[in-house]
Automatic annotation (TrEMBL):
The record marks R65 as: Transition state stabilizer. The keyword Secreted applies. Residues 28-334 form the Plant heme peroxidase family profile domain. It comes from Eruca vesicaria subsp. sativa (Garden rocket). This is Peroxidase. InterPro entries: Haem_peroxidase, Haem_peroxidase_sf, Peroxidase_pln, Peroxidases_AS, Peroxidases_heam-ligand_BS, Secretory_peroxidase. Disulfide bonds join C38-C118, C71-C76, C124-C330, C203-C235. The active site is at H69. Residues 1-19 form the signal peptide.
Amino acid sequence: MKLLLMIFITHAIFIPCFSFDVPGNDLPLTLDYYKSTCPNVFDVIKKEMECIVKEDPRNAAIIIRLHFHDCFVQGCDGSVLLDETETLQGEKKASPNINSLKGYKIVDRIKNIIESECPGVVSCADLLTISARDATIMVGGPYWDVPVGRKDSKTASYELATTNLPTPEEGLVSIISKFYYQGLSVEDMVALVGAHTIGKAQCRNFRSRIYGDFRVTSALNPVSETYLASLRELCPERSGEGDSNVTAMDNVTPNLFDNSIYHTLLKGEGLLNSDQEMYTSMFGIQTRKIVSKYAEDPVAFFEQFAKSMVKMGNILNSKSLVDGEVRRNCRFVNT
């Protein structure tokens, strides 16, 4: 499958297209799956995502993260969207998701529009995958073609949501193993973490970092000290105080999808321990080189990010491909 990659570094600069091969040609996904059944689906989602991101640029990061959390549990099958019922334990209350994962109402909004045009045709899993691509574009990131044809699962897994998803305080070796488990390489991991360039984090997820080794990794840089002081003002050391306070993981260009997050790691100022580990961990020989490459070459980062998003989107739930469905409401299995 040849995919086209268009990269916009700013609104004023255009970098020519790349074409590359993405593995997984044997997967039951195609670019024209909805050609006859819902030909306008890509346009509908793009138009709605434009409005959603204009309303709040943070919505871009929210949708990309929701897609990530979906694909790492049972594959990209929309399981993360399911509400809890008497007969189904959902994933929303799992520790990596509760109090932090958002975007469900955005999915509902887009789904309602699509259902009015093409009832019972477009899966929630495909909707979320396409939306993540469009969200990336809306904040200056790369374009990639999205293969579609996923089915929605009839199940969710609280257990897998608890164990499969990387956590902010996790060590590098453990995180690499979680990506490998999904069939994603170290290069994929470092590229996908680049989405943090538009993300925000809650105090509870970076408290241990700013009261831990932040000064060590930033080498007592006076500028870093000022940044650290502002973080500590936002996030008190005592657990329970200001837990839900948020700040940007990229404090330079927080609403622009660029390679700034890697420059932050080079300076030792990564907000999350899991991010900074890629550059400063004693086990990070390979990741350190990749971080440096992406900091130096934004084109290489954009190209790999697009490849890795397609690769992650191709993580499928084999069970849902056989007996899955197209949910009418993304929150509930059809009855």
